[in-house]
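so im writing up the methods section and need the ATP-dependent dethiobiotin synthetase BioD record in one place, dumping it here so i stop losing it
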Amino acid sequence: MILVVTGTGTGVGKTIVTAAVAANAVGRGERVAVLKPAQTGVGPAEAGDLAEVQRLVPGVTTRELARYPDPLAPFTAAGRIGAAPLTPAEAAEAAAELATDHDLVLVEGAGGLLVRFTGDGTLAEVAALLDAPVLVVAAAGLGTLNHSALTVEVLRTRGLTCAGVVVGAWPAEPDLASRHNLTDLPLVTAVPLLGALPDGAAALPPDEFAEVARHTLAPALGGGWHTPQA
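--- predicted struct ---
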């Protein structure tokens, strides 16, 4: 199975949610690969998102196709260093190749769904080429309803399947908007809310992170969903 992971924007917790889904699958004995088509804002010798996934989920296969030092959209970042942009077709081909010897392949995008890989190619095209469902990672608080609804609506209008929404960083002390969003997110998006990872989960050791993943993702993602408490 291939699952594409996108976000409603940058910094909403895509990498941590990707790692949590991977941890649950590894816990079931599955062979898991995480593909990062384009990593931006990270230098050649620096640790990127996949290093975080490997730390949290030992044993997972990781693959990065392109890396650009500037914290920009992949297409823009590639142009700044004179590199050929990574195409959606190249990303889809790599994911399909990994799927030949892995039970689950997670494809983590950069930024949101319509961030450009090429002049007119985005993560949405990668999902379409793979005919893969897309998991949307959202913020917890004020503004997330609109951002989430817009992302899911784009998926729907393009004929793509949205697997559901996960809150990437649930605050220890959620405010009024965050608490209501647990109920409102599935209402405004018409897709299921599949979990809410606690803020700070990335700092946990692998065994504790695996436990958190099991308890804060829904059964559809290999866990036992428990609603966060205020």
